[in-house]
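Long-time lurker. I teach an intro course on protein structure, and each term I like to show students one example going from raw sequence to a predicted 3D structure in C-alpha cell notation. This year I'd like something fresh instead of my usual example. Would anyone be willing to generate the C-alpha cells for the chain below so I can use it in lecture? Attribution to the forum is fine with me.
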Amino acid sequence: MTAKLTVVRSGALTTVQDGGRRGHAHLGVPRSGALDAPAMRLANRLLGNTPDAAVLETTLTGCALRPDRAVTVVVGGAPCPVTVERRPVAWGVPVRVPAGAVLNVGGVTAGVRAYVAVAGGVAVDPVLGSRATDLLSGLGPAPLRDGDVLPLGAPAPLPALPDSAPWPAPPTELALPLTLGPRADWFAPAALRTLTSATYRVSQHSNRIGLRTEGPALERVSTGELPSEGMVLGAVQVPPDGGPVVFLHDHPTTGGYPVIGVVPEDALAAAAQATAGTPVRFTVG
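-- Reply from a regular --
Happy to contribute to a lecture. Here you go:
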C-alpha cells in the first residue's frame, strides 16, 4: 500500500492540479491545470516524478497535511515558511516528512500560489485524463477541505540533483506580450494605444479563470453583439466596462465579448504569481 495525506488545514483555496485536460475544448471542457506550470514541473523534477504529476496548488494562505507514512515533499512556487511538527524546514528542496507528522505550508511572503509536490504524486482518480480541479466546470476533485484524505502514487527513486534549484521570483511588475486579434478591429485606434502605453494593475477579483485588471477603459467602435466564439488560454477579453481580462487555465471555452489580443502561454506563469495591485503592461511584439 502507498501513503495517504490527510488535510489538516485546507487554507483559502487548495486544489489538486497537474498538466490539465488538453484537447477537449470542442466539448466545452477547459484545460485547467497548474497556473504556474514551471513551478509544478520543477517541484516534480526534484522528486523524480513525471513533469505533470498531480500536486497541490495553494492560494496565499498555504495548507497543512499529515501523511500516514513517511513521504518526501517539495514546497515551491511562491516563497513561504515551511515547518514539520512546528520545526522550520527548507523551502524549494526535497524534505522528508515522517509518518504522522504535520507538514505546514505557511502563508506566502511574495506571490500568490505555492505548490506542494509529493514523491509519487497525488493519485486521485483522473477525469478525462487529468486529476486537475477545474473551478469553472466542476470537473476533477473539489477544492480541498479539512479532513479530506488524498491517495499518493508509488514514489520513484530520488534523482541526484543540486542542493538548490533556480526558483523564479514572483513579479514586481507584470509584462505581458500580446498578439493583436482576432477582434482588435472592434476597438478605436486610441484604445490600442492606451492598451500598450498605460499601466494597469492586477485586480483583487482575479482568480483561476482570469486575471482581471484595473486601469483605463478601452473604447469600442463596434457596439454590436458578438456571437459566442471559441476562447483560448491567454485570450484578453474586454467586457462592457472596458477593463482587459486575461484568461487563465479555468477559462470558459466560448465567450461573447471581443478578444483584443492573446498572451502566449509561456508568459502566463508570472501572471499566476502576480498579487493584487501589481503593475501590468501589455506589449505588442
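Some talking points for your students: Residues 175 and 281 are 5 Å apart (CA to CA). The first helix runs from residue 37 to 47.
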